[in-house]
Automatic annotation (TrEMBL):
SUPFAM superfamilies: DAK1/DegV-like. Coiled coil: none annotated. GO terms for molecular function: lipid binding. Keywords: Lipid-binding. The keyword Heme does not apply. The keyword Transmembrane does not apply. InterPro entries: DegV (IPR003797), DegV_C (IPR043168), DegV_domain_contain (IPR050270). This is DegV family protein.
Length: 290
């Protein structure tokens, strides 16, 4: 039996974790000097609530210690896993994989570590498709190759000023300080690049949806929002993608502490990749509870 693991930086929503039995290793997030384990004693809701107060909290993130990986892999082994594919945040941006390599030498079963060379829900996409392949009977080596292939094709698009649009009633006007609009961005080869500007929720979502649909066919899409104040963009973007012939599945996820520490409030967007076509032609759309 093949088991799957990732770290909480992958931002996997509970629906996907439960569907595939994925075990998530929590990153350490320190807020105002107090250490927390992401997803254990600090979730997205609790994290963003702290930004509603002033001053904004001081936040730092750190890789999990090796012991957390051993605990996660031990849980999978106890469930019957004889091999584990463990997919993690890229080594270029995190030391998570370094800790995993130390732990792998003591793992109870063989562990295949995957450096995704990416971050946030793009790591989640690699894990999602690898676990889907495992569900269909793929070997560990095949699942690793699939995760690496997804890492090479996954795309992203987002805005970080979503709250400005919402507070302006959906459109930025004179006197807001953002008359030219907020930038619509994509992280490409490790660099944030602008792909447009938007002065309304509709403009932002139109641009983001167009970008996603250009990524290919059979798309699996994750729609993100940080604090709930940006939820209108979540809903508007979803309405543009669900039901499109290029889109196979859509899930929602919250931007959690380990990513939100760097992106800040008001972040909303999408991460997507063209999934290999399955034998079944039907498309299922899954909505994660908010």
């Amino acid at each position: 039996m093949l088991g799957f693991c990732t770290d909480s930086g992958a931002q996997l929503p509970p629906e996907l974790v439960g569907r595939y039995g994925i075990v998530v290793v929590p990153l350490t997030v320190t807020v105002d000097g107090v250490e927390h384990q992401e997803g254990v004693d600090l979730d997205a809701e609790g994290f963003w609530d702290r930004f509603a107060r002033r001053p904004a909290p001081s936040v730092h993130t750190a890789a999990p210690p090796p012991g957390r990986f051993l605990e996660a892999w031990g849980d999978l082994a106890a469930q019957g896993a004889t091999e584990i594919v463990s997919i993690h945040t890229g080594s270029e941006v995190s030391s998570t994989l370094d800790a995993a390599r130390i732990a792998a030498e003591m793992a109870p079963v063989p562990v295949h570590l995957v450096d995704s060379h990416t971050a946030s829900f793009a790591v989640g996409c690699c894990t999602w498709e690898a676990a889907e392949a495992g569900k269909r009977g793929a070997t560990a080596d095949e699942a690793v190759r699939i995760a690496q292939a997804v890492a090479a094709t996954v795309g992203n698009v987002f805005v970080v000023g979503a709250l400005d649009l919402v507070r302006a009633g959906g459109r930025l006007g004179p006197g807001t300080g953002n008359e030219g609009g907020i930038p619509v961005l994509s992280l490409i080869e490790g660099k944030v690049q602008p792909i447009g500007r938007a002065t309304s929720i509709d403009e932002a979502c139109d641009q983001m949806a167009t970008y996603v649909l250009k990524l290919g066919d059979g798309l699996r899409v994750g729609l993100s929002v940080a604090d709930r104040g940006a939820a209108p963009l979540w809903e508007a973007l979803e309405s543009r993608l669900v039901g499109c012939p290029q889109v196979r599945e859509v899930v929602r996820y919250r931007v959690g502490p380990s990513v939100g520490a760097h992106s800040g409030p008001g972040t909303a967007g999408a991460v997507a990749y063209p999934a290999p076509r399955l034998e079944e032609p039907a498309r299922a759309i899954h909505r994660v509870r908010r």
